[in-house]
Amino acid sequence: MKKLIASLVGAATIATGATMLTAPAAQAVTVSTSTVKYVFCSANPNGNHITYYDRYGMVDKYVTLNNKVDANTYCAAIEVGIESGSYVWSSIDNDDSTYVHAAIYEVRYPLFSGSSGAAPQSTLVARDESRYRGGGFNYAIAS
Fold first, then answer.
1. Which residues contact 119 (CB under 8 A, 6 or more apart)?
2. Which end of the chain is more exposed for a tag (fewer CB within 10 A), N or C?
3. What is the DSSP string of 53-67?
4. Is 142's pLDDT higher than 80?
């Protein structure tokens, strides 16, 4: 099962990357702002494999989630610049977690927000989560 899911995620990565320059991928969301925030959460803070897009392309790495949001959930938020109208998706997987969550937010900064101290406005555009009580391989893809 783990190999099948990894193959599907890999195929989605290849398909999304191949169509990113020509047409919207079937499993991607279009963002209308120049800033995107990705949120990743897991019941296991260690060994989280995340994938997301920034203005240079796909970012794929393993991370430790340091922000403990409740007794059993650790999260991280990554804000990146991106060209408006881009197609993006994100994913998280973990070999030993009972819960994973991926979300994508468009971020809008009000005019003069730097000088006025106005908070940015975030709008959820995609999310996915998965719970598996066995604590084995678990994944979520926000698209």
1. 113
2. N
3. EETTEEEEEEE---E
4. yes
